[in-house]
Amino acid sequence: MNKRYNQTLPDLLSEMVQRFGDRTFVIDHTSRRTYREFAADVMQAAKGLHALGVRRGDKVALLMGNQIEWLVIHFAVASLGAVLVPINTWWKRRELEHALHDSASSVLCMVDKYLNNDYVGTLNECGDLKALFPQLRQIVYLGQQAPAHGMPYAQMLAGGAAVPDSLITELASAVSPQDHAMYMFTSGSTARPKLAQLHHFGVIGNPYSIGERMHLTEHDRVLIPVSLFWAYACVNALFAAMSHGSSVVIQYNFSADEALRLIEAERCTAVYTLPNIMLSLYAQPDWKQRDLSSWRTGICRTQVLPLAVEMGARDAITSYGLTEGYGNSCTSDASWPLEVRLRGSGKPLPGTEIEIVDPKTHEPLAAGVAGEIRMRGFVTSGYFNDPVRTAEAIDQDGWFYTGDLAVFDELGILQFRSRIKELIKTGGINVTPADVEEALEEHPDVRQAIVVGVPDAQRDEIVAAMVVLQPGSSLTAAELLDHCKQSVATYKIPRHLQFVASHEVPLTDTGKVSKLLVQKQLTATYQAGSKA
To answer: CA–CA separation, 120 vs 72, rounded Å?
Structure first.
C-alpha cells in the first residue's frame, strides 16, 4: 500500500482500481464485482446522490443488510465529501427515530424489508416524517414496498445521468484525510447511543495495520459474517482487506452452515468472528467433513482462539477494540506462537498509544497493575453534536478514556479485565442498560426495572433484569418479554428476568439502587437456573 495516496476513501478506491482493477473485490449473496466494476457502480451512485442535493458535510443514513449496495453507497457518499451514518438493522421504531434525529441526516438510503424487519411499516408508525425530521429531504429505497415520499434506488441512479463524471472526480479529489467519513453509533453506559466521528485517515490507516498483523495480501479473501453497520465490519474488516487489495465476501445474514459453505466455496482465507459466531461455527456437526483448508487467519476473542485454530485458522489473531478506536486498537500478530497469542489481546497498533492509568487520578500505572485503558492517536475526535459527552471522554491532551479495565503483562500484551462502565457486552454487541430499562418500564404493569450484565460462558455477558411490578399485577415474564420485542432490538431483550418486591431491591448506604448488588444477585439466580 502506498501511504502517500490512500488517505481518503475515494483515493484508496482509485488506487486499488489502478493496481488490481480486474480482481474480484466484493461478493454478496447475489452477485460479485471487480474493483473496476465496483468503482463504476460508485460513480453512478455518487452522481445520483449529487443530483438529489447531497453535498459536502451532509449526513446520509444507511439502513440495509449486508449487500453490495451498502458498500456502493458508502463510497458514493464519501466521494461527495458527505458523511455516512450506518443504522443498526435490528433497531425498532424508537431507536430509528433517535438515529434520524440525532444524526441530522438529510437523506436515508434503505431497504424496504430485511429478514423479519419491515422498515417501511416502522417508518409509517413514526407518523409525519417531514414534521418529525425536517432536515430529512429524501428517502431512497430498494425493494417493492415504497415508504412515504420514497424514491426507488434505480430512479435515484437514473437521476444522476446528467451529472458529469468529471464533477464527481473533482469533488472526490477535494476530500481531505481529516474530513469526517462516518458517524458511527456507539452505546454509552447510561444514555442512548452516541455518534462517534471517524475520519478518512483513521478509517484507512488503522485497519491497514490490522491487515498487516494478519499478513493479508491481494490474494486473500476475507469473509465478513458480521453486520456491516458495526465498525468491526465496515471499518475494521472492510479496510483491512481493501487496503491490501484483498477480496471481501459479505454474508447477507449470519448462519453457521452458510458461513462454512462460503468459506469452502469461495476459498476464504480469513474470517471475522465474534464469540457467538465462532461458537456456532464450531458447534456445526459437519465442519470436519468440509474443506476448510483455505482458512488460515482472521480475528477472534482470546477464549475462542483454540477453536479457530482447531478448525484450521492456525494464524488467527486476537484483539481489543471499540468503535471510537476505529474497530480495534490492539491485536496480536499471525506470526506469533499460539501460546503468545493466547496471552491476551495483543499489542497496540501503530499510530495508537495506549496507557493503563488509575481510574480516579489518571496517573499511569506500572506493568502488571490493572487500571483503566486510555488511548490517543487513531481515536474519535469526539461525538457529533454532543460536547458534554465528548469532554467526559477526551481530555485536553487528546487521551480517550475507554471505561475498560486491563493490564499490560511483562511482554507488553494487553489483557482485558472488565468494564468500569455499566455497558453490557453480549456476544460482542454493546447494550446500554438504560435502553432496556426504558422499554421494560413502558409496560403499565412495571413499576421499576434495573438492568445489568451477568457473566455467561458463551456470550461474555447476557442482559438480565430485576423487575418490580405494580401492586396487584399478575404480569408474567413471557408477557413482559413479548412487550420488549415490540420496542427494542432482539439482542437487548433480557435473557434472565427476576420479579422482586420493591423492598427487595438492593440499595446503597445513600438509598440508591446498588447495581453491583443487583448484578451479584442476578448472577447467582442465573447460574443456579443454568445448573438446574
So the answer is: 22
Q: How far apart are CA 224 and CA 259, in angstroms?
A: 9
Query: Taking Cα atoms as reference points, which of 42, 44, 104, 107 lies closest to residue 73?
Result: 42
Q: Is 425 helix (H, G, I), strand (E, B) or coil?
A: strand
Which of 166, 214, 171 has its CA nearest to residue 11? Answer: 171
- Starting at the edge strand found earlier in the chain, the sheet holding 400-408 runs 352-357, 371-377, 400-408, 414-419
What Rg, from alpha-carbon coordinates, does the chain have?
A: 23
Nine cell digits for residue 277? 459466531
Percent of the chain whose predicted confidence (pLDDT) is above 90:
78
CA-CA distance, 296 to 129, in Å (whole number)?
48
Report the alpha-carbon distance of residue 68 to residue 39 in Å, rounded: 12
CA 196/CA 321 separation, integer angstroms: 14
Specify the 3-state DSSP secondary structure of 302: helix
- For 73-94, what is the mean pLDDT? 96
Residue 335, number of CB atoms within 10 A of its CB: 11
Provide the β-strand partners of residue 394.
Answer: 400
Beta pairing, strands 113-114 & 117-118 = antiparallel
In the numeric block, which cell numbers belong to residue 191?
444514555
Q: Which three cell numbers stand for residue 370?
A: 490493572
One-letter amino acid of 459: R
Q: Are 326 and 202 in contact (CB under 8 A)?
A: yes
Amino acid present at 123: L
232-268 per-residue burial string, b: 16 or more CB within 10 A, e: under 16: bbbbbbbbbbbbbbbbbbbbeebebeebbebbbebbb
Which residue blocks in 29-83 are alpha helix, DSSP H? 35-51, 68-79
Phi, psi of 229 (to 5 degrees): -70, -10
Residues 6+ apart with CB under 8 A from 459: 275, 276, 426, 427
Residue 61 and residue 182: Cα distance in Å, rounded?
10
Task: Count Cβ atoms below 10 Å from residue 176 Cβ, excluding itself.
Answer: 12
Show contacts of 500-504: CB within 8 Å, 24+ apart: 500/466, 500/467, 500/468, 501/468, 502/447, 502/448, 502/468
CB 290 within 8 A of CB 307: no
Per residue in 440-490, pLDDT tens? Answer: 989 999 988 999 999 998 888 999 999 999 889 999 999 999 999 888 888
Main-chain dihedrals φ then ψ at residue 246, nearest 5 degrees: -75, 170
Phi (first) and psi of residue 507, to 5 degrees = -125, 155
Residue-wise pLDDT for 483-495, tens only, equals 998 888 889 999 9
